[in-house]
Write a structure and sequence with these properties.
Layout lengths: L1 H13 L21 H17 L2 H11 L9 H16 L3 E10 L2 E11 L3 E2 L24 E2 L4 E9 L5 H9 L8 E5 L7 H8 L4 E5 L2 H4 L21 E2 L37 E4 L1 H9 L26 E9 L2 E11 L4 E11 L7 H23 L6 E8 L2 H4 L1 H9 L1 H7 E7 L5 E7 L4 H9 L10 H12 L2 H9 L15 H6 L4 E8 L13 H8 L4 H19 L8 H33 L2 H5 L21 H26 L7 H13 L18 E3 L7 E3 L1 H8 L3 H32 L1
Parallel strand pairs: 4-8, 5-6, 6-7, 7-9, 12-13, 12-14, 14-16
Antiparallel strand pairs: 1-11, 2-3, 2-10, 5-10, 11-13, 15-16, 17-18
Helix pairs in contact: 2-9, 2-18, 3-9, 9-18, 14-15, 19-21, 19-23, 21-24, 22-24, 23-24
The structure holds zinc ion (ZN).
The site of zinc ion has 6 residues, from helix 9.
């Protein structure tokens, strides 16, 4: 293969001399942060770690943890936390449960009925299946609902809004369709579900329904449960609709830990509750509603796979939606387990996965939880046989992730000061499937996690999980991805938006973070449904827990290497390369916006628009726009040049030390400086209109929720065509990148002092 022929020379040139040739797991391969001797010892330790992992433990633990519904506030959620605590203690960890009191509404009244053109009452329930042994636990199951929807009792005409994201409303507006005073029905997908009621309310809608269209999440994709893994017609997706891009966590304690005595705001002042009532439904319940609608036929791209003509409404279909919730406070239980470091006990290596679910949660989250627990058991065994980590390791089983990242956020907010000072890395996982390793995170960790991925073998293909991920990129990537898979030493990792417990660590506290998990081969599932069960998971997702073990091997190595390394294995070349790409992208985004506006205004003035639209259909002529001004990107470009220079100096110094097979002596000070690099990417004032999000390089989009916006302050201002704010944010982000370069220089100075 071509990659191997040039790699050694290039890698040595490009980064620290501790990087590796390709896939063989030979003991003498260098490791970031270790000298050659240390690297060999680390690999011996990791081989022993692998030999300790047992797939039957994953199966048994999943069976136990997913045996009953374990949502926030349920008896089994409490039991699971106590069971996990007992496991950690039995493995030699110093473990406690930390409790928080959070707002957790559950439904008292849910009514959805069609009034016109005919009567229909939605079932709003998932039937029991003979083939699924836990599906009959009806009395313990949470009903199908969206947590943090407000109470409401509304009757109005239905309007179909596709995914219900901002650009869908532009399309509706152009077609003369206004959702003011209407109830909108949106299909799942395309964004965080909380975005749908948010944008609908911004456009004046009075209610929102969200359904799973089989085109995205059902029979169009494959056989449905119990024949296959895909969502059947009665399956529905529960889920939070809190406005998390504003701030995650308990809605009543923004920015502070929801401890017993915490100051709480009044329910009416909670910003992250929806502004309109919202309810999720199955496609069996959605079909009669969508079928009864008339009006314009939906655009091609909006049509799903239900056996109907998709119409937009408003018109014949009128529905009544009534919701009432029990707005109570519940106790959540995070299990926190420590293995104290000996040389640098103050430095923290934090690993987490949530344990709460919406129902039985075999896939989400227990598949990741059991892999993390087996990791911890392996580390416990190593410790019993004499191994001591240099740095302190903390394993965290989070509660309350499903309603809004509650357990991780309240813990991070409660211990913010300590974590800002001492946390070196946070490593997250959540659901785990089968297939390809997904790697997301801080780009100061890109080279590190690529190194780990080269050392873990894919259970199906017996090649490294790195080579397997590269192979899929070579075959299925776009042109640029294919080129990079051929030429780039490291696979690019995804920038992190939100959707799991890494958010409070990365985007609020500025702790370098990773999000890991396998997937892409396990064909669908029943996300947030009663059918996400042990039976479903062991039949269709990872029957032998092969990828559970693979995740434990990946997660275990990330923890071991960060805990044992002589110097924290951060690297800045990939970061600088990536930030350089982002700067290019936002510059191009402005140029594209300018061209787009120019073209539109021209087409409006030369009659092209008027010439095209179908006169038999309602059409609203778009309005001409102010031309986009030229923005001054110099502050960003100058700070990028500064970052490139700082990175070059750091790498050169590291390589000189490597050439002498030496590592800096007083690494404690260097570690501290390295930890501060990611902190420097944050700004106390946070992002515009959302101060909780402090990271200036990565954030979930204000209107995506899951999807990441990189250089969010600049990028979102440009997307919103808020040119004045874009100018301000260019200065702010430029200064932030400058601050990052300063921290890297500080580390270089410490390195040079040891030469
Ligand atoms: Zn999850």
């Amino acid at each position: 293969m071509r990659i191997d022929s040039f790699r050694p020379a290039l890698v040595l040139l490009l980064s620290c001399a501790f990087i590796i040739p390709a896939a063989s797991q030979s003991k003498d391969k260098p490791l970031l942060g270790f000298d050659p001797e240390g690297a060999a010892a680390e690999r011996t330790l990791e081989a022993k770690f692998d030999s300790l992992l047992k797939r039957e433990n994953l199966r048994e633990t999943m069976k136990r943890l997913s045996a009953r519904p374990h949502h926030v506030g349920s008896p089994y959620d409490k039991e699971n936390a106590e069971f996990i605590l007992s496991l950690f203690r039995s493995w030699g960890f110093d473990a406690q449960i930390e409790e928080f009191q959070v707002l957790f509404p559950t439904p008292k009244v849910r009514v959805l009925e069609m009034i016109t053109p005919e009567k229909f009452t939605a079932r709003l329930a998932e039937p029991t299946l003979r083939e699924d042994s836990t599906s009959a636990q009806t009395s313990e199951q949470l009903p199908v609902y969206n947590a943090y929807s407000i109470d409401g009792d509304v009757t109005a005409q239905l309007v179909y809004v596709n995914y219900g994201v901002p650009k869908d409303y532009e399309e509706l507006q152009q077609r003369g369709i206004d959702v003011k005073g209407k109830i909108v029905i949106a299909r799942y997908g395309g964004s965080w579900r909380g975005i749908k009621p948010k944008v609908a309310a911004e456009h004046g809608a009075v209610g929102c329904l969200i359904y799973s269209d089989p085109r995205d999440d059902g029979f169009y994709q494959g056989d449905v449960y119990p024949q296959g893994a895909w969502r059947n017609e009665s399956g529905a997706q529960r889920g939070s609709v809190a406005d998390m891009p504003l701030y995650p966590g308990d809605p009543l304690t923004p920015g502070v830990g929801a401890t017993k005595d915490a100051q709480r705001i009044a329910l009416k002042d909670a910003q992250t509750l929806t502004k309109i009532p919202v309810l999720p439904i199955s496609y069996a319940d959605a079909l009669p509603l969508l079928k009864a609608m008339n009006g314009q036929v939906a655009p091609d791209a909006w049509r799903g796979s239900l056996p109907i003509t998709y119409h937009l409404g408003p018109g014949s279909a009128t529905v009544h939606l009534k919701l009432e919730f029990d707005w109570k406070t519940e106790t959540i239980r995070d299990v926190i387990a420590r293995l104290k470091g000996d040389e640098r006990p103050d430095e923290l290596i934090i690993r987490g996965n949530h344990h709460d679910a919406w129902v039985n949660g075999a896939s989400d989250p227990i598949s990741g939880q059991v892999a993390m627990l087996e990791e911890a058991r392996g580390l416990g065994e190593l410790a019993k046989s004499g191994w001591k980590p240099k740095r302190t390791i903390i394993y965290c089983a989070w509660d309350g992730e499903e309603p809004g990242l509650l357990g991780s956020t309240e813990w991070a907010e409660t211990h913010a000061e300590m974590l800002r000072k001492h946390a070196a890395i946070y490593i997250n996982s959540d659901s785990n499937g089968r297939g390809f390793l997904g790697m997301g995170g801080s780009h100061t960790l890109e080279k590190f996690i690529n190194e780990v991925a080269r050392d873990v073998t894919d259970p199906e293909k017996k090649i490294s999980v790195s080579d397997r991920a590269r192979a899929v990129q070579l075959l299925r990537g776009d042109k640029n991805e294919q080129r990079e898979a051929r030429e780039r030493a490291d696979l690019r990792i995804d920038a992190l938006g939100s959707g799991s417990d890494f958010t409070p660590f990365l985007q609020h506290l500025g702790i370098a973070s990773l999000n890991l998990g396998f997937g892409g081969e396990d064909g669908g599932g029943s996300y947030h449904s009663i059918y996400d069960s042990f039976d479903n998971y062991t039949r269709f997702i990872d029957p032998n827990f092969d990828y559970g073990i693979a995740l434990a091997e990946v997660g275990g190595r990330t923890v071991l290497r960060f805990a044992n390394a002589d110097v924290l294995p951060f690297e800045f070349g990939n970061l600088t390369d990536t930030v350089g790409q982002y700067v290019k992208e936002v510059t191009q985004l402005t140029n594209d916006a300018r061209e787009e506006i120019k073209e539109k205004n021209l087409r409006l003035s030369d009659g092209t628009y008027a010439a095209v639209f179908d006169p038999t259909q309602p059409f609203v002529m778009p309005k001409a726009e102010q031309p986009a001004p030229y923005l001054n990107f110099a502050p960003l470009e100058n700070s990028l040049a500064r970052l490139q220079e700082s990175t070059r100096k750091y790498q050169t110094t590291m390589m000189q030390l490597a050439a002498q097979n030496r590592l800096p002596a007083q690494s404690g000070a260097l570690d501290e400086a390295l930890i501060k690099v990611e902190r420097a990417m944050t700004r106390e004032q946070g992002l515009p209109r959302r101060p909780w999000f402090k990271h200036q390089i990565y954030a979930p989009g204000f209107y995506t929720g899951y999807g990441v916006k990189t250089l969010p302050g600049v990028r979102e201002a440009i997307e919103q065509r808020n040119w004045q704010e874009a100018n301000e944010q260019i200065g702010i982000v430029g200064q932030t990148i400058e601050n990052v370069a300063v921290e890297i220089d500080r580390a270089t100075t410490l390195l040079q002092a040891t030469r």
